[in-house]
Amino acid sequence: MYGHGVLCLLVFSVFSARVAGQVQQQLLNKLVCIEHEECGSCLSAASHCRWCADPYYSSAAPRCNDDETLVTTGCSQAMIQRPEKPVWVVAENNSLQDMQLGSQESVVQIQPQRIKLSLKPRETKKIKFSYRPAKNYPLDLYYLMDLTWSMKDDKETLVSLRDDLPTLLKNLTDNFRLGFGSFAEKPIMPFISVDERRRANPCSVEEEACEATYSFKHHLSLTNQVNEFINEVNTSSVTANLDNAEAQLDALMQVLTCGDRIGWSPRSRKIVILSSDGLLHTAGDGRLGGATRKNDEKCHLDEKGYYNEAATYDYPSIAQIYRLLDEYKVNVIFAVTESVKEHYDSLHQLLEDFTYVAKLESDSSNILKLVKTGYEDIVSVVDFEDDSSSGPVKVRYFTDCGVKGGQMIEATRCTGVGYGMTLNYEAHVALDACREFVRSSQTIRISESQLGQDSLTLEVDIQCGCKCEGDLQKDMSMTCPANSHLVCGVCQCNKGWSGPSCDCSIEDENASTELMAQCREPNTTRAIACSGVGDCLCGKCDCDRGYSGRYCQCKTCEISLENGIECGGVGRGVCVCGQCACSEGWSGEACDCTSRNDTCSAPGGNDICSGHGDCVCGEFR
Ligand SMILES: *[C@@H]1O[C@H](CO)[C@@H](O)[C@H](O)[C@H]1NC(C)=O
Ligand SMILES: *[C@@H]1O[C@H](CO)[C@@H](O)[C@H](O)[C@H]1NC(C)=O
Ligand SMILES: *[C@@H]1O[C@H](CO)[C@@H](O)[C@H](O)[C@H]1NC(C)=O
Ligand SMILES: *[C@@H]1O[C@H](CO)[C@@H](O)[C@H](O)[C@H]1NC(C)=O
Ligand SMILES: *[C@@H]1O[C@H](CO)[C@@H](O)[C@H](O)[C@H]1NC(C)=O
Ligand SMILES: *[C@@H]1O[C@H](CO)[C@@H](O)[C@H](O)[C@H]1NC(C)=O
């Protein structure tokens, strides 16, 4: 192993002797490269590092070095590996588009739609995109009504609104459809009467005829025919049960999971209006009546539209409902009477993003107003999410929330969004470090989380490897020892093997003392392997988090507060054994202080800080 002692001495002298700036910078630039023994980590170390993949390179100088040194030490020009070219292609950039009559596909709410880009370690790219809620976006409204006895008058009110309802909905969007379902209670004891006669007609006490108790019935699939909806409501009959709690969650579960029967459109805003004057049963309550099986989150509707497994499966839990509301992007407006509103308010705390609670007059006379305010509340929230969590690329969001000339603040969520507003977003896409030194890619879908339909797709090329990785270098006179293979001009040990001749299994903790000695920093008082902050595997240190260097003798560098990346990221500085080496124009512990001073001048003026105060790190202080 060449030059490690030299490396330490250099680091030492550079920082202790405070060589004149430029010389120091050159030395640091060299140091950043030469400790790397593999192509991928070499090119990832800094933008000026090159790797010599020439198998015939015979110089004792490091293979990871600057261009000039590699040429002068005899590396074949053609075999010098350079960083890959950056990629930036806007692959789809259709303009924002409101709903056109008769073609739901024409709607465009997010622009652009697809970008191909590359990221190197410690690199951040900023992607601007805009979002505008489309006018006349389709609305699917499913009216889920409590049809227990006490809601009899509410049904009549709804029927009386047959002219006003379409007028109101037309005011919200040109494209609406209505569906209808009703719920009561699981038809099992103790929720209903034991008495045979009362089972068939649970309203016999009221001396009226009504339907046998059921949990949920789907009456009408989503349709744009308002009169069909009114007719269905008018011809539906009430029922009754014994307790004051009902099967709202059973009903919601079926409405969510029976997408085909309900008729939910893939491109629509989906809202369930659930009206009730009763409390609701949740998971566990079903056991009282023998419905002991955990709710299976499946659709069980018979031909007539009844939920026919109500006596088998328990009520769903709040957590199950929450997950499915998110999955199917359905919002619920709970229109409930004063006596039970508090109960629904606490439910709203748990289902916050997807629900709205409003007070329903005892005869439902304010239902129209309530639908309007509920709808407006739901559409006024815009929130973005993405699926990047499993990969190495991280995304942060900044937005002006549609305020003209407003400041960009870090947030995904905007409230108070009205039609016609365009929200400007900026996604900061960053790769803070390579997980592995190989070329890979990650596809990220950024979508509005309330609707979940429009999206911006990022195809990120992760530049952590080298082009020469896959090259077959066969006919070489040079052969590699067992447990190793030729990669980019050098023999690299296979996974699980290490040591100078790849004959030491990293599982084997009983490595030779000779190898152990290689983990100790020479000529220091701390003669502990890997400085006590790493494991010595076959003579190589596997450092704990926060340490680096051959002997784990270096702490990791300062993280920039501004972007969360070590030494400010690509273009600002690199980490050299615990100290950031800043590029020209940058200074500070984490290289996040710019020497630019133009940002301090008042617009139009060229007086720094208008003559008062200092310009520090590009900001007026
Ligand atoms: C360590 O010290 C010994 C003697 O004290 C010296 O011979 C050797 O060159 C030193 N090693 C390095 C890497 O400086
Ligand atoms: C997309 O096109 C618009 C013009 O319609 C342009 O202003 C915008 O910069 C483009 N977006 C990107 C990311 O290139
Ligand atoms: C429909 O909207 C207009 C103005 O936007 C308003 O004047 C009217 O009252 C609304 N009608 C209903 C039924 O809400
Ligand atoms: C509702 O049904 C009754 C008969 O059951 C009928 O007389 C009435 O006209 C219907 N109302 C509407 C709005 O269809
Ligand atoms: C482990 O080391 C001991 C001496 O330290 C030696 O006797 C033994 O053979 C080694 N075991 C293996 C599996 O290498
Ligand atoms: C601002 O920066 C420029 C170039 O970096 C320099 O020439 C100029 O003197 C600076 N102005 C002040 C007032 O520091």
What does this entry look like structurally?
The protein has a 6-stranded mixed β-sheet, with no helix packed on it. Mean pLDDT is 84; it is low at 1-19. The protein starts with a helix and ends with a strand. By secondary structure, the chain is α+β, with helices and mostly antiparallel strands. It folds into 4 domains: 88-135 and 382-462, Sandwich (Immunoglobulin-like); 139-379, Rossmann fold, CATH 3.40.50.410; 495-555, Tie2 ligand-binding domain superfamily (Tie2 ligand-binding domain fold), CATH 2.170.300; 560-621, Laminin (Ribbon). A hairpin with a 5-residue loop joins strand 25 (497-498) and strand 26. The protein has 14 helices and 36 strands. The structure holds 2-acetamido-2-deoxy-beta-D-glucopyranose (NAG) (6 copies). One 2-acetamido-2-deoxy-beta-D-glucopyranose binds next to loops. The site of one 2-acetamido-2-deoxy-beta-D-glucopyranose has 5 residues, from helix 8.
- CATH architecture of the largest domain, by name, is 3-Layer(aba) Sandwich
Query: Ions, cofactors, ligands: which are bound?
Result: 2-acetamido-2-deoxy-beta-D-glucopyranose
Strand order of the largest sheet: 4-6-22-21-16-19
Identify the CATH class of the largest domain.
Alpha Beta
Distance between the termini: 50 Å
Largest sheet: 6 strands, mixed
Total beta strands: 36
Main location: membrane
GO molecular function, one term: integrin binding
Subcellular location: Cell membrane
Family: Belongs to the integrin beta chain family.
